[in-house]
Amino acid sequence: MDAISIKGLLHQYKGVNEPAVNQLDLTIPKGAFYGLLGPNGAGKTTAISIISGILKSNSGSVYVLGKDWNSDAKSIKQSIGLVPQEIALYDTMTAIENLNFFGTMLGLDSKSIKTKTDELMEEFGLSDHKKKLVENYSGGMKRRVNLMVALMHDPEILILDEPTVGIDVHSRHMINTYLKGLNEKGMTILYTSHQLDETEQLCDQVCIMDRGKLLVEGKTSELVSDGRSLHHHFIELTGKQLRD
Amino acid sequence: MKLLASIKKEWLLLIRDKGGLGILFLMPMVLVIVMALVQDAPFRDYQEQQMPVLFVNQDSGAISEAIVATIHNGKAFRVVDSLDGIPIDSTRLSKAINSGEFQIGIVIHEGLGDDLKSIVDSQVDGMLAGLIPGGDSVKVEKPAVNPYISLLLDPTTKHTFRSSIRSAIKQFLSELEAKMIVDGLTSKLAEMTGKAPEVDLSSKGIVQLNETTATSKVMASDVANNSTQHNVPAWTVFAMFFIVIPLAGNMVRERTAGTIIRLRTMPTSMFHFYAGKFVSYGTVGLAQALLMISVGFWVMPLLGLAQLDLGSGLLPLIYVSIAASAAATGYGLLVGTIFKTLHQAAIFGMVSVVIMAALGGIWVPLYIMSDSMVFIGHLSPMNWAMEAFNDVFLRGDTLTEIISRSWSLWLFAAICFGLALVVENKR
Question: ipTM value of the model?
Answer without folding.
Answer: 0.90
